[in-house]
Amino acid sequence: MEKVAIDLHIHSLLSPCGQAEMTPNNIVNMALIKELDFIAVTDHNSAKNLPAIMAVAKELAKETEIGLCILPGIEVTTKEEAHILAYLPTLEAAMALDEIIYQHLPDVSNQKEIFGPQIIMDEHDQIIGEIDKLLISATDIGVEKLWQIVTDLGGILVPAHIDRTSYSIIASLGFIPLELDVKTCEVSKNQSFEKVLANFRFFKDYQFIHGSDAHQLEDIAERQYFLELPDMRRQTLIDYLG
What we know:
By secondary structure, this protein is α/β, with parallel strands linked by helices. It is built from 8 helices and 11 strands. Strands 3-2-1-11 form a 4-stranded mixed beta sheet. Helix 1 packs across helix 2. The longest helix has 15 residues. It starts with a strand and ends with a helix.
């Protein structure tokens, strides 16, 4: 078994709340500086910066022989206003989910002066586009429907920051539907697993991970959250979490 350092909840500047410094190159290089092994960039309701991020990581691995595994992901807001982390086995699966989610977002335009821009970049940190629809809106996809969509794409769901009193599946539904077949839940970085278990006894059957939910570079996790995996493959991590 190999002990790997993770941060599976990071936002790029595509998320309207993400800072301008959260470019593909900055995120990947900061993760390497912090000696992380696995990261997931999980923008709100979009995967459109993942191609650049994964390209940067691949090129750096060639140049430096230092590997950083990127787990493709999206933080989806369901119609219940629950934040759910969807992790996919491939970039292609993530982009397919991206297309589905965009179709199910309301036609509400982003007001950049209020929420911030929603910028798409290439692997050289050059701006190649912006997303018009407000990405922090709730989709019209329910939790159970999202589970089916993601499962069909070979992915898994991890409820985000379950300890929060807003935008968590517990705040929205009060429970995790058993039919979702969820194995892992994310707990906010400042909350202990023990306290979550003390407050919600039904979580005894789940395993927990921490994520930074970073919106600025300094908040990306240090080498502090670990999992033990047999190897460094994305599918291995998905199998562990799901």
